[in-house]
Design brief:
This protein has 19 helices and 29 strands. Helices cover 33% and strands 22% of the residues. The N and C termini lie far apart (125 Å). The strands form 7 sheets. The chain has a 5-stranded mixed β-sheet with strand order 2-8-7-4-5. Helix 16 packs antiparallel against helix 17 and helix 16 runs parallel beside helix 18. With 806 residues, the chain is an alpha/beta fold. The protein is elongated and about 145 Å long. The longest helix has 49 residues. Strand 12, helix 11 and strand 13 form a beta-alpha-beta unit. InterPro entries: DUF6049 (IPR046112). It holds the Pfam family DUF6049. Keywords: Membrane, Transmembrane, Transmembrane helix.
């Protein structure tokens, strides 16, 4: 506040006004009081019958908040969000009322002031998907100025960081659509208008606000003169679609492990995940969907053998026997587009999974529940030669060390056992073999390039799933593109389904269902004479489906749409198409390039382990997960993901090291110095510890400690004998950690020592003197005691003799 102005104002307040000025003020105050009293009486007559409330009752009459009209314009915060959607995406003409929900959130530090929510129906039917997209994106040019007001709802104040749900019932009489109106998609808009000090009569001056809406007055209220603070539009499907119209829909349903499974799944993780996957398979079979299966799921169940949960083994048997078309994703759903952007010449594959099968339980006769027993003549049970494409590709890629981050381990060196009666765990090829799947790939949405297609061609892939934004030249669901049989997933349908599954509020998820129904209604229609019917492909988002507790909401929405026909992918019409090249973000490419480099550095520590192949196999699985398509999503937090990767890799790069100590005191000519070794790797280490003196002041009788075992993530202490040659001084021990094969040194540390042998001699002398003094004092005390006892005895004897003589 300006101090000069404050002072002047204070002076004027303190100065006594003149009588004439005082009379004028009193007159003006009296007139203002009469006007204010009249306004209060009128406002009381208007507001008294309306009552209060924070949300609209189910009978469609507006509810008014107690604070409505009290908040000044300055108190309104622009930091807010509004979601709005119909409770049911399809509105029937004979329903008594139509229920909508709204979710108002305050996203700023200030409260969102009270106000009113105005609900209007946009004029005209939406004829195409482009106009629907423009409406949902808030393009004012597509809305039009003339909209029918359906109802007005008073909204109370929204606390900072909080939200409130509103339930709005619009009576059938207030809906201007009727049986004579064309079936199809219409837009309903919600505007939140904050209240001001002059809005005392807000929400009471137009038809429709009382929920009646009968006669010619229904929806005739003009748009509010107040500028809405928040606005949003939702589509509704009025009376379904035109008679006889339909759309052929092919679903692609991913079967993946949730994001919390960062490595191979444990038994507990399988127990928690399989029931959801089983329900997802039920829905996929009902809709004749195409399955996209993560090989990590298959290998993760098989790696436990008989120890895997019974439900998981039953699910795997059922998946192998299903008649649905299915293809295998890359292991851990790694993104082929990202690998092409990194310059890989081959698709990355696991090098082995022996670390995962090490604790499994396997029968004496290895069996595969997905196929009959191998006849042993080098052919498959069906008479074909060799293994499936997936298994052979995995084997070839595992042997190739030209790809950044690859090793030369085949991952199966430890499958041979010393004991003949110990069953061998399954090999990598056996874990990944899946004859039920065809060769396919699914790059991240919108990121496929020519390099991606070349990489997939080299891997023998014949089928693709691409987002519609990645394809040019056709609106069809299936195209022949660069030698690939390609399913074109509708990007708008996929985004609506993603919102339906993962929206931040119940209302936003309901809005996703409304958009999904509306887009499918727009896709339905009779084809022109002689033209093939155009279908749609809905590919459910992999990351969303993997992490969602249930995806039943998607199938429940689709089941309610009578004009949607489930269609097998092979029955969709095919056309020609060309690639519209996408792009992998430079930020993600750089992140992945650094992750590959760090993974190679961690691989170099493998010789320190008892089973070196475990680390390279484990790192390859982690690298494939890092390449996962879930991290290509627009809402993926790459900064947080990168930070987590760096922290994990930094911990692993510590490897096996001697823990440094500040100083160790040597007292005496011979000592045993404790050396603490820490293993930061996830598997048991087996090392050679080499010790050498730093100077001639000490000698180390034993300089090599072989086959020292250190458990994963644990510590081990080695006692090193040290002899000192001087009475005092400073020196150090040089300790090296080496592998057990060729004793290559991986780390070295210097442990400082302080020698204090002179003090030991002094202490021993003092202790000797003290011991001699104590011994002498004890002898003297004993002799003195004996003398005293002897004298006492002699004196007692003399007295006795004297008494006897008397």
């Amino acid at each position: 506040m300006d101090r000069g102005r404050s002072g002047s104002k204070l002076g004027r307040m303190l100065r006594a006004p003149s009588p004439r000025r005082r009379d004028r003020r009193f007159g003006a105050a009296a007139a203002s009081g009469r006007s204010l009293l009249s306004a209060m009486l009128i406002a009381g007559l208007v507001w008294a019958p309306l009552g209060t409330g924070a949300s609209a009752p189910l009978d469609g009459t507006p509810a008014h908040a107690e604070t409505a009209g009290d908040a000044p314009r300055e108190a309104v915060s622009a930091a807010g969000e509004l979601d709005f959607a119909p409770q049911e995406p399809v509105l029937a003409a004979d329903d008594e009322s139509y229920i909508f929900t709204a979710h108002l959130r305050s996203t700023g530090e200030d409260a969102l002031a009270a106000g009113r929510l105005e609900v209007r129906l946009a004029d005209g039917r939406i004829e195409d998907a482009e106009r629907l997209t423009a409406l949902l994106s808030g393009d004012a040019a597509t809305v039009g100025p003339d909209r029918a007001l359906l109802t007005t709802v008073e909204v109370g104040e929204t606390a900072p960081g909080e939200g409130q749900e509103l339930t709005i019932a619009i009576p059938r009489a207030a809906m201007p659509l009727g049986f004579q109106d064309d079936a199809g998609v219409y837009a309903v808009r919600a505007d939140f208008v904050p209240a001001t000090q002059t809005d005392g009569d807000a929400g009471t001056d137009g038809e429709g606000s009382d929920g009646e809406g009968t006669g010619d007055d229904t929806g005739t209220r003009p748009p509010s003169t107040e500028e809405p603070l928040l606005s949003t539009t939702t589509p509704v499907v009025w009376r379904g679609v035109t008679a006889g119209a339909s759309v052929r829909l092919t679903l692609i349903v991913p079967l993946l492990l949730p994001g919390e499974v960062t490595d191979m799944p444990t038994q507990d993780q399988l127990s928690q995940t399989v029931p959801r996957l089983s329900a997802l398979l039920d829905a996929a079979e009902r809709w004749d969907a195409t399955l996209a299966v993560d090989p990590r799921l298959i290998a993760g169940i098989r790696a436990h053998g008989d120890a895997a949960p019974a439900a998981a083994r039953e699910f795997l048997d059922r998946l192998a026997a299903t008649a649905l078309p299915q293809f295998l994703l890359q292991f851990a759903d790694a993104d082929p587009a990202a690998q092409a952007a990194l310059g890989f010449e081959q698709l990355l594959q696991p090098t082995g999974l022996s670390y995962a099968t090490a604790n499994g339980s396997f029968p004496a006769e290895p069996s595969d529940p997905t196929k009959p027993t191998d006849p042993g003549d080098g052919t498959n049970p069906d008479g074909s030669s060799g293994t499936s494409d997936v298994g052979s590709d995995a084997e070839d890629d595992a042997e190739d060390d030209a790809i950044p981050g690859t090793g030369e381990n085949d991952g199966d060196a430890d499958t041979d056992t010393d004991a003949d009666d110990t069953p061998a765990p399954p090999t990598l090829e056996q874990l990944l073999d899946w004859p039920a799947a065809y060769s396919g790939a699914w790059p991240a949405e919108g990121e496929a390039t020519t390099a991606t297609l070349q990489l997939l061609t080299g891997a023998g892939i014949e089928s693709l799933v691409l987002e519609s934004g990645n394809v040019r030249g056709t609106a069809g669901p299936r195209v022949a593109l660069g030698g690939f049989d390609t399913l074109v997933a509708d990007a708008d349908l996929g985004a609506a389904a993603r919102t339906l599954l993962s929206g931040p509020s119940e209302t936003s998820r309901t809005a996703g269902a409304a958009e999904l129904a509306a887009r499918l209604a727009l896709a339905a229609g009779r084809p022109a004479a002689g033209a093939a019917e155009i279908g749609r492909v809905l590919a459910l988002d992999r990351g969303t489906v993997a992490d969602a507790g249930t995806v039943e909401a998607v199938f429940a929405t689709l089941d309610a749409l009578a004009w949607v026909d489930p269609t097998n992918a092979a029955l969709q019409p095919s056309a020609e198409g060309t690639l519209r090249a996408g792009e992998v973000s430079e930020t993600r490419v750089e992140l992945l390039r650094e992750a590959v480099s760090r993974s190679s550095a961690v691989d170099a520590l493998a010789p320190l382990l008892q089973h070196p192949e475990y680390l390279t196999e484990y790192q390859r699985v982690e690298l494939l997960r890092t390449l996962g398509t879930r991290f290509a999503a627009p809402d993926a937090d790459l900064a947080a993901f990168d930070q987590g990767l760096r922290e994990r890799d930094a911990a692993l790069l510590d490897g096996v090291q001697v823990v440094p100590s500040e100083n160790t005191q040597l007292i005496g000519s011979s000592s045993r110095v404790p050396v603490l070794v820490h293993n930061a790797l996830p598997f048991e280490a087996l090392i050679v510890l080499k010790v050498a003196p730093y100077s001639a002041a000490i000698t180390v009788p034993e300089r090599r400690f072989a086959d020292e075992a250190v458990e994963a993530g644990g510590n081990s202490t080695v006692l090193v004998p040290v002899d000192s040659r001087v009475s005092s001084g400073s020196t150090a021990l040089v300790v090296q950690v080496a592998d057990t094969v060729d004793e290559t040194v991986f780390s070295e540390v210097r442990l400082p020592l302080t020698i204090s042998s002179r003090y030991e001699a002094i202490l021993l002398t003092v202790l000797g003197v003290l011991a001699a003094l104590l011994f002498g004092f004890g002898v003297w005390r004993s002799l003195r005691r004996h003398r005293l006892v002897g004298r006492a005895d002699r004196g007692e004897g003399g007295r006795r003799r004297g008494a006897a003589g008397e």
